[in-house]
Design goal:
With about 375 residues, the protein is an alpha/beta fold. The chain folds into 2 domains: about 1-320, 3-Layer(aba) Sandwich (Rossmann fold); about 330-370, no CATH class. The chain contains 15 helices and 13 strands. The longest helix is centred in the first third of the chain and has 18 residues, at about 80-95. The protein is globular.
Length: about 375
């Protein structure tokens, strides 16, 4: 089987790429910048994009299954770009005799969808619009929980930084989160699935509100948090709120906030019907796994990953503490003083013994830390 993976530098793409490398297939990656990939990866690389018909057709030559993991959220006119990109991909895939397209979209109903979610739905509709010419498996996921995912980063940062939260009313909205490992499992299994024409598969775990997710994350982190929803925070204010307390930029935060006002729950039982061997982990387990990966510096991909000139550097260094922490080394000669005495003095710093200067300032800092939920 010959497989093409688009979006190989994205959050899902990076993880799916590693899974596919362990499969008995021939893998080809379509990227705009080959330098963004590890040169020792050992896979075929096609340079191009979905707006360059010639490069797209070359990439799809001889392909059996093509993964479509492309989204243009960072562009102002992303809706039009997404539809055109999907149409170009569909036309080229049919022309080159591709048997199946696998697409990852978002959960939701078109009538109540935000602009961002509507774009994801319309992309899926385009890709599955010619079932007589090509098979399409459309996997739909809601809140993806995993180390480095935008949803998890938002939940984690809010939970860690705010002991008491006055939140927008969208925290009461129902959703069905799913662990990123399960998303990868569904995508990987889709290439081998026996199905005709087109299939839409909604995936997720238990139903819960965003408030329950934040409290669940707090519990996993060993924190006590209080959340008070208010109906007065507008989309703009909510977006700035997320931008201030989380690493997600305003443009991305706004698109996410717009989608939080409508429920994102499963609309069909095709996941159990076609993938009975996949048992999605519950929210708590997914959160604990994400936290563990972060603590062990094993974050394989992040929401901000994309095809850029610094991707290779980021992949090699961003999880290395020496690349993200300022290390200041100071040396002093202590001839004539035993190591045991030096160590005992060092261990006595802070606490009841106090500091070597400005004790009152350190005391104020301790109280401030306690007020923000820290140890003091």
């Amino acid at each position: 089987m010959k497989v093409l993976l688009t979006g190989a530098n994205g959050y899902i793409g990076r993880r799916l790429k590693q899974t596919l490398l362990n499969e008995d297939i021939s893998l080809r990656l379509l990227v705009r910048n080959p330098k963004s990939l590890d040169p020792d990866l050992g896979v075929e690389v096609a340079q191009g994009d979905t707006f360059d018909p010639a490069s797209l057709e070359r990439a799809l030559e001889g392909i059996d299954v093509a993964y479509y993991l492309i989204h243009s959220l960072q562009h102002k006119n992303y809706k039009d770009l997404d539809k055109q990109s999907a149409q170009n991909f569909l036309d080229a895939a049919i022309k080159k005799g591709v048997k199946r397209i696998i697409y990852l979209g978002g959960l939701g109903v078109k009538e109540h969808a935000s602009e961002h979610l509507l774009s994801r739905i319309e992309t899926g509709e385009v890709l599955s619009s010619r079932p007589s010419d090509i098979e399409t498996i459309w996997i739909r996921a809601g809140v993806i929980i995993g180390s480095g995912s935008s949803s998890f980063e938002i939940i984690r940062h809010l939970t860690e930084k705010l002991p008491v939260m006055v939140t927008p009313k969208w925290v009461k909205t129902l959703a069905q989160p799913i662990g990123v490992d399960d998303v990868i499992a569904y995508l990987n299994a889709s290439k081998d699935l026996s199905v005709n024409r087109k299939l839409m598969v909604d995936i997720g775990s238990e139903k819960m509100t965003y408030k329950e997710m934040m409290l669940g994350c707090a519990n996993a982190l060993g924190l006590k948090r209080w959340i008070f929803p208010l109906p007065v925070l507008t989309i703009n204010l909510s977006s700035y709120w997320l931008n201030f307390f989380t690493p997600v930029p305003y443009t991305v935060a706004r698109s996410l906030i717009e989608g939080l006002s409508s429920e994102v729950v499963i609309q069909n039982d095709h996941a159990k019907q076609y993938f009975p061997h996949i048992d999605p982990m519950d929210f708590e387990s997914a959160v604990k796994k994400a936290i563990q990966e972060m603590e062990e510096n094993q974050v394989f991909s992040r929401w901000s990953d994309a095809g850029g000139e610094y991707d290779m550097w980021e992949r090699q260094h961003k999880d290395d503490p020496s690349s993200s922490v300022l290390i200041d080394r100071q040396k002093m000669n202590l001839d004539g003083i035993s190591k045991k005495r030096v160590y005992r003095t060092f261990c006595s710093i802070g606490g009841k013994e106090g500091w070597f200067g400005y004790d009152w300032l350190w005391e104020i800092r301790g109280w401030m830390d306690k007020m923000l939920g820290g140890a003091g």
